[in-house]
Amino acid sequence: MEEKKRIFSGMQPSGMITLGNYLGAMKNWTALQNDYDCLYCIVDMHAITVRQDPVKLRKQAKDLLTQYLAVGLDPEKNTIYYQSHVSQHAELGWILNCYTYMGEMNRMTQFKDKAAKHADNINTGLYTYPVLMAADILLYQTDLVPVGEDQRQHLEITRDIAGRFNTIYGDTFKIPEAYIGKVGARVMALQEPTKKMSKSDENKNNTIILMDEPAVIMNKIKRAVTDSEDEVRFSEDKPGISNLLGIYSACTGKTIAEAEKEFAGAGYGTFKTAVGEAVVANLEPIQQRVRDLEKNKDYLDEVIKKGAERASKLAERTLSKVQKRVGFLPKVR
Ligand code: TRP
Predict the structure, then answer these.
(1) What's the chain's average pLDDT?
(2) What is the average pLDDT across 162-168?
(3) Ligand 1 mean position to 92 CA, how many Å?
(4) Beta bridge partners of 38
(5) Cα–Cα dist 94/98, whole Å
(6) Cα gap 312→307, rounded to integer Å
(7) What is the mean pLDDT of residues 189-204?
(8) Which atom of ligand 1 is nearest to the CA of 133?
(9) CB-hemisphere CA count at 13 Å for 273?
(10) Does residue 333 sit in helix, strand or coil?
(11) How many C-beta atoms surround the C-beta of residue 82 within 10 A?
């Protein structure tokens, strides 16, 4: 039997999970779990590159785990764990720092964006963030990484670092590729539909939180920025309506063209109500499962313990090989 290809992805517990995270990533992950060997890491170590309140960070990391399970990721089929529980990430991250050039990091556009946004805390962790991400991926001999546009550059640098290491020391890392499959919807901010919906957005009306109550969801969609026409049509110059069409399509499985036809001549009010209802219909069952899971602390603990054990075992294989290649002495046992 041919072995399944390995997929690795991570998500930061740096805020509350949004509809964008769900439709753009998590919803598709559940479709991969039978055909691939998947690791879904909750990257709390990446999260602290921006200042986090410890109490909130713990809550967000827990919520993210619960929500992974609630959307349908099966912990028997996938390895789900907290990055900080698997120390090999930090260890390989350090080593890879020594095989990455400042010139390469200086080109990272996300660093520039984040440095501008957090001018009071431009720490070196933020700077070397892509190296830790490379370690995440390379530790598991990952074949495929499902990444959005904003993470492409980080995957490229991961490939460069891996290739460089392999050239110096011989084949050590598998060179990962971007997973191009059914791409998730790119959900934009409701009030500023030219920028991505983000869990760290300060404007609460820009985001729909996975756990938002139905009335809140309906209200946020109703207030979403549109345009002065009254035509439900997908177009670059209609970012607000196009975004809502994308959300509707992702929630209902209908194509954009079908949706346009459905709402021809209907007016924005009717359309927005339908979008809101479609979102609610998607999120309500997930919210119910979250509430059920939260009552079952023992089960959640078990999932996270097993996940870390499994990940750690896999990671150690790669790490020990790397340590040997760079010239570290083996531990005396
Ligand atoms: N940087 C990614 C993001 O913010 C999260 C991440 C960390 C990740 N490590 C990863 C994604 C490894 C894919 C693979 O979206």
Answers:
(1) 95
(2) 98
(3) 16
(4) 7, 78
(5) 7
(6) 8
(7) 93
(8) 9
(9) 5
(10) coil
(11) 20
242-280 tens-digit pLDDT: 999 999 999 999 999 999 999 999 999 999 999 999 999
CA–CA distance, 27 with 253 (Å, rounded to integer): 12
pLDDT in tens, 20-55: 999 988 988 898 999 999 999 999 999 999 999 999
Residue 234 tokens, joined: 């997908």
- Residue 149, pLDDT score: 83
Amino acid in the structure at residue 157? I
- E strand or H helix that includes residue 186: none
Please indicate whether residue 305 is annotated as part of the active site.
no
Nearest CA to ligand 1 atom 6: 10
pLDDT at 183 over 70: no
The β-bridge partners of 18 are: 209
Report the C-alpha gap between 210 and 287 in whole angstroms: 7
Distance CA 203, CA 200 (A): 9
Structure tokens at 24: 């753009």
Q: How far apart are CA 196 and CA 189, in angstroms?
A: 5
Q: How many residues can be counted in the chain?
A: 333
Q: Is the pLDDT of residue 299 over 90?
A: yes
Q: Among 27, 196, 220, 238, which one carries the catalytic annotation?
A: 196
How many CB atoms are closer than 10 A to CB 327? 7
| Chain-centre distance for alpha carbon 54 | 21
pLDDT, tens only, 91-131: 999 999 999 999 999 999 999 999 999 999 999 999 999 99
Residues with beta carbon inside 6 Å of ligand 1?
Answer: 8-10, 12, 43, 46, 133, 136-137, 145, 147, 151
